[in-house]
């Protein structure tokens, strides 16, 4: 049961999670990246691959999967999802299952404007969102939108180019900065040439910033929602978080799964505030907050391996103990023995 993690970057914990998941079956965990990285150091074997948008990327991936009998490919970066989604059948041809949703689901989730339209059309609460500066200015004049306003790339990730404007002067400044970020970072690979349609403007929600892992089986059937509240952020990811039991978030997770029918796991950002819960972002992959679920008892990698091999996952793998606080840092992995409120530390090397 060989597994390959692509665009593995610093996610050393994913190597360890899948190594443990396949241990009863035997096999190895491979990691690939376009540049040397921490995950490559801890994998059983590592590969330096072309960048995702390189024409040789899929050819190289197919060769690796064929030569090393890779049964499962797990993508870990937004930019590769559309590429792998389109190559799913090619990978199946060499005996490899790509853990990625359909091209339509991937494209929808990567596009924050389409995500907003999709959620609103299905009655799932989402922040007021405008496409382009002119529409945002009209929304502010009509009262549909009000300050503060969040300005961010339509096809964005990692909080790159994300700013908050409190007045008209700041709105223009934030818009220019976001446009510059799109042009000067890897975001340019995902955004269109029409910059006016590459920036979205959203109401700034108040309340508790939460994230959930929405788990489905490999056929897109809803299984579970693993909820966490964010305590601290770094580089667009939760750095400290606490698992929680919140029916509103569980219900939203089920609504999302029934509407999208994504593959295996989706990371959703949700604000829980005075006006209820609002879904902000959908990321159809293992998100940076998944380790907090794992530390609190979940084991989605093991469930995925079980589904792929025709076994039935242990129900405990699809639940979390509420009240477990996790912190990404330089301290060793450890957990407090307190049964109802534990503190955990996971390496982020």
Question: Can you walk me through this structure?
Answer:
The protein has 349 residues and is an alpha/beta fold. It has three domains: 2-100, Rossmann fold (3-Layer(aba) Sandwich); 128-203, 2-Layer Sandwich (Dna Ligase, domain 1); 208-347, D-amino Acid Aminotransferase, Chain A, domain 1 (2-Layer Sandwich). It contains twelve helices and 17 strands. The protein has helices at residues 12-22, 38-42, 56-67, 81-86, 88-92, 103-110, 112-121, 133-142, 168-184, 247-260, 290-295, 300-308, and strands at residues 2-6, 29-33, 45-48, 70-75, 97-98, 129-131, 149-153, 163-165, 199-203, 208-216, 222-234, 237-244, 265-273, 276-283, 325-329, 334-335, 343-347. The strands form three sheets. An eight-stranded mixed sheet has the order 14-13-10-11-12-15-17-16. Helix 1 (12-22) crosses helix 12. The longest helix is centred in the middle third of the chain and has 17 residues, at 168-184. The radius of gyration is 20 Å and the shape is globular. Residues 330-349 have low confidence and may be disordered.
CATH architecture of the largest domain: 2-Layer Sandwich
Q: pLDDT under 50 segments (min length 5)?
A: 330-349
State the helix count. Answer: 12
Question: What is the N-to-C order of secondary-structure elements (H for helix, E for strand)?
Answer: EHEHEHEHHEHHEHEEHEEEEHEEHHEEE
Strand order of the largest sheet: 14-13-10-11-12-15-17-16
What's the total count of β strands?
A: 17
Rg over CA atoms, rounded to whole Å, is 20 Å
Describe the biggest sheet?
A: 8 strands, mixed
Mean pLDDT: 90
Q: What is the SS-derived class?
A: alpha/beta
Number of domains: 3
CATH topology of the largest domain: D-amino Acid Aminotransferase, Chain A, domain 1
**CATH superfamily assignment of the largest domain?**
ATP-grasp fold, B domain
Highest-level CATH class of the largest domain: Alpha Beta
Helicity level: 25-40%
Shape: globular
Beta-strand content: 25-35%
């Amino acid at each position: 049961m060989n597994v390959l993690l692509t665009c593995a970057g610093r996610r050393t914990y994913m190597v360890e999670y899948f190594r443990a998941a396949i241990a009863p079956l035997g096999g190895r965990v491979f990691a690939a990246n376009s540049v040397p990285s921490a995950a490559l150091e801890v994998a059983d074997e590592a590969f330096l691959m072309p960048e995702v948008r390189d024409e040789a990327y899929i050819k190289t991936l197919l060769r690796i999967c064929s030569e090393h009998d890779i049964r499962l490919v797990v993508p870990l970066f937004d930019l590769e999802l559309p590429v792998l989604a389109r190559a799913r059948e090619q990978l199946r041809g060499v005996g490899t299952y790509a853990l990625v949703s359909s091209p339509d689901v991937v494209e929808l989730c990567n596009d924050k404007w389409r995500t907003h339209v999709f959620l609103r059309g299905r009655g799932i609460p989402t922040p007021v969102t405008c496409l382009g500066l002119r529409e945002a200015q009209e929304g502010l004049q009509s009262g549909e939108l009000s300050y503060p306003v969040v300005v961010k790339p339509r096809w964005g990730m990692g909080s790159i180019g994300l700013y908050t404007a409190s007045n008209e002067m700041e709105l223009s400044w934030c818009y220019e900065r976001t446009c510059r970020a799109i042009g000067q970072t890897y975001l340019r690979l995902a955004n269109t040439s029409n910059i006016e349609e590459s920036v979205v403007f959203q109401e700034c929600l108040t309340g508790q910033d939460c994230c959930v892992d929405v788990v489905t089986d490999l056929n897109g059937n809803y299984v579970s929602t693993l909820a966490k509240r964010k305590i601290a952020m770094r580089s667009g990811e939760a750095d400290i978080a606490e698992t929680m039991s919140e029916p509103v978030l569980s219900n939203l997770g089920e609504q999302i799964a029934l509407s999208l029918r994504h593959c295996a796991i989706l990371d959703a950002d949700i604000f829980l505030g005075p006006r209820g819960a609002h879904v902000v972002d959908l990321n159809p992959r293992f998100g940076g907050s998944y380790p907090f679920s794992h530390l609190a008892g979940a084991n989605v990698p093991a469930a995925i391996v079980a589904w792929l091999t025709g076994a039935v996952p242990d129900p405990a793998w699809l639940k979390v103990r509420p009240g477990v606080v996790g912190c990404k840092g330089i301290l060793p992995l450890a957990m407090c023995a307190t049964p109802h409120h534990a503190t955990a530390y996971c390496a982020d090397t």
